[in-house]
Amino acid sequence: MTSSLPIIDMSKAYTERNELAKKVVLGLENEGFIFIDNVAKLDYDGLFRACKWFFDKPIELKRTVMRNIWNPENSNIYRGYFPITEGEPSRKEGFEFARDVRYDDVTVAKNNWFYEKSPWPKEDGEFPFKEFLQESYEILHNTALEILKLVAIGLGIEENIFEDMFLDKPCSTFRIMHYPPWKGEPPKNAIVEDGKVVITPEHTDTNFLTLLTRFNYGGLEVKTMDGSWAEVDPRPGSLVMNIWDTFSRMMGGRLKATKHRVIDIGIDRYAVPFFFTPRYDGDIGINFMSKATGVGQEHRVERYGPWVLDVIKNQKKYFEYRVLPDIEPKA
């Protein structure tokens, strides 16, 4: 079974703004996943080259930016490289970075690892890895902000209402990933009920929204309303967008955080997700529409950072984040 997702053409974001806004909200109320076409200046070939440049490098280079849990010689604990972990049903390696905050920003606790400085590998002149990825981050950041404006218009509220959560020190993460196929017998926890083998198990994303570059690879499946699984067809030159638990929770479940998984397709697979995430002290409390409209149950303020720490640290939901030190209670 395959899934046909709504298609949002960003080149029409101003000429057909209201129609596009209604289509975005309808897609997020139902499928929870949307194709995003025609993102200006986003270089998909360059993103693929970035993946190949890094993941084809020897482990010695990767170790220079490996997280502290896997390389105690390094100080980075949240950003940087994480390797494949044997025995895990999530078979992937990744490199991730963020937009660095100023070193002298007094509002950021020194041990707040959301804001740690991103490490970068030494380059060889073959590809402008750091410069290209940082430029791509800004393109995707601005695209996500524009999509949120469309969401707001479609909901009938002020179109810039979400911006405050993201303009100053967002915790967004830009990640490049490599999924190698299983070699030999996969672990039992990677074999799912329909006999398929996963390289990322069933889950919903935790934070706000994702803009995913899939290139031309299959393997992504979403859970439909009847509980069955449907493959999302590849769509080269397009992003796949889905929202996370945080956003769905803010909206009282009106917008859907859809369960999804990645199936082993038997070949090396690459993907580039941009995890668009509020600032540490951003208000992600429930009953957001009451805050926006003044009507309904009272909005309850809740800060993103302390809330998400329980999910990714205390609940140990993701293997790459299971060992993280505490953060003092300061934004």
Automatic annotation (TrEMBL):
InterPro entries: DIOX_N, IPNS-like_FE2OG_OXY, IPNS-like_sf, Iron_ascorbate_oxido_reductase, Oxoglu/Fe-dep_dioxygenase_dom
Domain of life of the organism encoding this protein: Eukaryota
Record key words, sorted: Iron, Metal-binding, Oxidoreductase
Coiled-coil regions listed: none
Claim: Oxidoreductase is one of the keywords in the record: yes
Entry-linked PROSITE patterns: FE2OG_OXY
Family: Belongs to the iron/ascorbate-dependent oxidoreductase family.
Protein name in the entry: Fe2OG dioxygenase domain-containing protein
